[in-house]
Amino acid sequence: MASNEQIVLELYAAFDRSEFDIVRSMMAEDFTTDLVGVPTPLNREAFIQFGQEFLKAFPDTCHQFDKVIATDNRVVTIGKFRGTHLGNFQGLPATGKVVEVEVVHLDELSNGKIVYHWGQGNQAGMMKQLGIVFIPGISLAIAAIQHKWS
After folding, report:
1. Which of 55, 59, 130, 150 could serve as a FRET partner for 23 with CA atoms 20 to 30 Å apart?
2. 120-124: long-range contacts (C-beta < 8 A, 24 or more apart)?
3. Is 75 exposed, middle or buried (0-12, 13-18, 19+ CB in 10 A)?
4. CB 125 within 8 A of CB 101
5. Predicted TM-score of the model (pTM)
């Protein structure tokens, strides 16, 4: 039987290869995920749909992990995701730019299946690499000006 670390690493490798039948088979039926920036938890099918949309935008996605920390039923992966923006991503048309984003994931397993996933990526860094610049709203600009002059 594969270790939890091996299961999680194979999940990311299958994800990178767009092998979503394998990804689905590695997740429990009651799988849930919390993704930073996504307002509600996703179930297994919603997460797979999210992954498929992500891979349409970054079809050459590759995860590389610098650290993998495994405990009894949890695996933490710390590293980078790299991909080329070749499709629509959150309303942004393809830029052709390569991005490299720091990521941290926590996966929890039970009986050899992933039951929970939490993911955090450097979204601000990714947007900057894609050429998106944060422009504060008018209320933030006014508050900054008022603070400076008070």
Report:
1. 130
2. 120/36, 121/36, 121/81, 123/36, 123/37
3. buried
4. yes
5. 0.83
Residue in the block written with tokens 């996933």: 117
Structure tokens at 104: 């941290």
Which residue is listed with tokens 């650290």? 67
Instruction: Report which of 88, 65, 46, 55 is spatially closest to residue 6, judged by C-alpha positions.
Output: 65
CA-CA distance, 27 to 30, in Å (whole number)? 8
CB atoms < 10 A from the CB of 2, how many? Answer: 11
pLDDT tens by residue, 71-90: 999 999 999 999 999 999 88
